[in-house]
Description:
Elements: H1 10-14, E1 19-23, H2 31-40, E2 45-49, H3 55-65, E3 70-74, H4 79-88, E4 92-95, H5 100-107, E5 112-117, H6 120-128, E6 133-136, H7 144-152, E7 159-162, H8 171-175, E8 183-185, H9 191-195, H10 199-211
Parallel strand pairs: 1-2, 1-8, 2-3, 3-4, 4-5, 5-6, 6-7
Helix pairs in contact: 2-10, 3-4
This protein binds 3-phosphoglyceric acid.
Amino acid sequence: xxxxxxxxxxxxxxxxxxxxxxxxxxxxxxxxxxxxxxxxxxxxxxxxxxxxxxxxxxxxxxxxxxxxxxxxxxxxxxxxxxxxxxxxxxxxxxxxxxxxxxxxxxxxxxxxxxxxxxxxxxxxxxxxxxxxxxxxxxxxxxxxxxxxxxxxxxxxxxxxxxxxxxxxxxxxxxxxxxxxxxxxxxxxxxxxxxxxxxxxxxxxxxxxxxxxxxxx
Length: 216
Ligand code: 3PG
């Protein structure tokens, strides 16, 4: 297979593990050790958000140095950001919402977009572009588990990664739903642990998250 034409699919991203850390990297020196700590704890799929000025450099460093990781970019809102993240080495992208411009740009690119939806109309727009895997955001605020169960009625073949308000207390309840493949959350890369470079704690949190998944 020609490696340059290979595009990871959204379903591969969502099925690569039950939990996806939402990472906010303030200090470039933290990028590789944070990613390594998560991988050591059993988490391969990493979402690095574009919420800090060094995010793209962090993506580049992680994709070059942490080969076991499946590196993605988060908080994407424009085609320009999508292009820049792909150039930095991200193989998937997560957006908090969706627009026709962003969906079209992703379709024409080599990066897998998992757009966020919070309503049926947004879901239908994404489906018009052939997508069947979405982020459900902000999960808890947008109706949580009852909303996901309700969506399963009219959209039985759609799979979600709920994010926003997910924690160790509720993630198993989300993962128990048939239309949920994984959950995302910042609790897996907490700001205090990163600030104090407590990589052992990050690894421990990752391990706990994986070990405590209750088989559905
Ligand atoms: C996201 O961008 O997906 C959310 O901000 C993460 O939400 P959380 O902090 O509630 O996990």
